[in-house]
C-alpha cells in the first residue's frame, strides 16, 4: 500500500484548467464633447489599447484582468473614451512554468476578450454612438511578440554588462 502511494506521488499531475468566474471589475464611459459630437458627420478614428495583469489568489488559482481602453476621435475631438476591466478567476494546475505563463498571458485573455468587447459595445450604444464591434484579437501572436521583445531586451542588457 505504501508503494502505491509513493507511485502516485511520483506521477506527474495531468494538466487542469477551469474557469471559476468571469466578471466586470471596472468600467467607465466618457463623452466629453457631447452633444456637439452628434451634429458632426461620423467618421471616427478609433484607437484600442490593451493590457493584462495577473495575480495569484491561492495555489493554482489566478485572477487575470484584461483592460481595454477605446478612444474614438472625430475631427480631432474626443467623441468617447471607454475603459473596461474584464476579469476572470481561473484554476490552473499541472503545467510547467512556460505553459502556465502562456495560459495566463494568452489563453485566459482570449476567453475574457468577448466579454470585454460586449461591455465596450454596450456602453458605446448607451452613449448614443453607432455600434462598435472590436475586431477579434490573436492573443497567441501578441504573447509571442511580447516574449520575443523581452528576449531581445534581455540580450541587449547582457551585452551592455
TrEMBL record:
Record keywords, A-Z: Chaperone, Cytoplasm, Protein transport, Translocation, Transport
GO molecular function, one term: unfolded protein binding
GO cellular component: cytoplasm
Cross-referenced InterPro entries: SecB (IPR003708), SecB-like_sf (IPR035958)
Top-level lineage group: Bacteria
Pfam families for the chain: SecB (PF02556)
An individual GO BP term: protein tetramerization
Location within or outside the cell: Cytoplasm
PANTHER family: PROTEIN-EXPORT PROTEIN SECB (PTHR36918:SF1), PTHR36918
Assembly and oligomerization: Homotetramer, a dimer of dimers. One homotetramer interacts with 1 SecA dimer.
Stated family: Belongs to the SecB family.
NCBIfam families recorded: PRK05751.1-3, PRK05751.1-4, secB
Function noted in UniProt: One of the proteins required for the normal export of preproteins out of the cell cytoplasm. It is a molecular chaperone that binds to a subset of precursor proteins, maintaining them in a translocation-competent state. It also specifically binds to its receptor SecA.
Protein name as annotated: Protein-export protein SecB
Organism whose genome encodes this protein: Amphritea balenae
Amino acid at each position: 500500500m505504501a508503494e502505491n502511494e509513493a507511485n502516485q506521488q511520483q506521477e506527474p499531475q495531468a494538466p487542469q484548467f477551469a474557469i471559476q468566474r468571469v466578471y466586470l471589475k471596472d468600467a467607465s464611459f466618457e463623452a466629453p464633447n457631447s452633444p456637439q459630437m452628434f451634429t458632426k458627420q461620423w467618421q471616427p478614428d478609433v484607437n484600442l489599447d490593451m493590457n493584462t495583469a495577473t495575480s495569484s489568489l491561492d495555489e493554482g488559482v489566478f485572477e487575470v484582468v484584461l483592460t481595454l481602453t477605446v478612444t474614438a476621435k472625430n475631427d480631432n475631438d474626443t467623441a468617447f473614451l471607454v475603459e473596461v476591466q474584464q476579469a476572470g478567476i481561473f484554476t490552473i494546475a499541472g503545467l510547467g512554468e512556460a505553459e502556465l505563463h502562456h495560459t495566463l498571458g494568452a489563453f485566459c485573455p482570449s476567453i475574457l476578450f468577448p466579454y470585454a468587447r460586449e461591455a465596450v459595445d454596450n456602453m458605446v450604444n448607451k452613449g448614443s454612438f453607432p455600434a462598435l464591434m472590436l475586431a477579434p484579437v490573436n492573443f497567441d501572436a501578441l504573447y509571442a511578440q511580447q516574449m520575443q521583445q523581452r528576449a531581445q531586451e534581455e540580450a541587449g542588457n547582457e551585452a551592455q554588462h
